[in-house]
């Protein structure tokens, strides 16, 4: 079985995987509420997490998520209007946040159609994490593309080399259109907990690339962007179905 940088939680069926991730989230949320009175989670877009988000709203076992004191941040976003089908916040609203009792002021879309969405979103983060040079989100849910990108950190794109700012615009020939706004490694790696949700046989070869680097104790963020996700104080857990983990 592949060895990856961090714990691997794996199940043959995605539904079982989603269940384990949901239970983990409930536990982390309860810890965060006890510690800070709020739970700050950042969600990714893409096709993989959408059925997980839907599970969170339809399965009564997950009613323990304290949405009233949860803040939803966005890991990355496409620079399209919020009603565009490519918009991550559109998918996240439709599959999750519109169906749970989360206060509207706790939903933090990236203002991608503004002139400076990066500095605006950084200011929004600082407003909620005052006194912290680098906000520490409680949980960041990442995906991984076939090219081993995560968030909108695409291979050999400019955002890979951002080591100070929290949020940047990422554009250019190495960014899958449309232009993006994305969390950077400094913000992602400062999270208490990082979950990487990867399902489907087509991701097996990409995970093999991550495992090969891990075996050599190497990282290669320019060519394998997800290898640059290395939590500073927190932990990283890979949530994989057997199709992705075993290629079967
Ligand atoms: C996005 C996501 C992106 C996603 C990967 C995997 O904006 O598309 O945030 O980083 O996690 O592209 O996408 P799939 O889950 O669709 O394979």
Principal-axes geometry comes out as: globular
- Radius of gyration from the CA trace? 17 Å
Indicate the mean pLDDT. Answer: 97
Low-confidence stretches: none
- How are the strands ordered across the major sheet? 1-10-9-6-2-3-5
Number of strands: 10
Which percent bin holds the helix content? Answer: 25-40%
DSSP helix count?
7
Please summarize the sheet with the most strands. 7 strands, parallel
Distance between the termini: 12 Å
Proportion of residues in extended strands? 15-25%
Structural class: alpha/beta
- Cofactors and ligands: 6-phosphogluconic acid
H/E element string?
Answer: EHEHEEHEHEEEHEHEH
Structure report:
29% of the residues lie in helices and 18% in strands. With 248 residues, the protein is an alpha/beta fold. The strands form 2 sheets. It has a 7-stranded parallel beta sheet with strand order 1-10-9-6-2-3-5. A 3-stranded antiparallel beta sheet has the order 4-8-7. Helix 6 links the parallel strand 9 (193-198) and strand 10. The longest helix has 23 residues, at 14-36. The radius of gyration is 17 Å and the shape is globular. The model has no long low-confidence stretch (mean pLDDT 97). Bound molecules: 6-phosphogluconic acid. 6-phosphogluconic acid (6PG) is lined by residues 44-48, 75-76, 88, 143-145, 150-152.
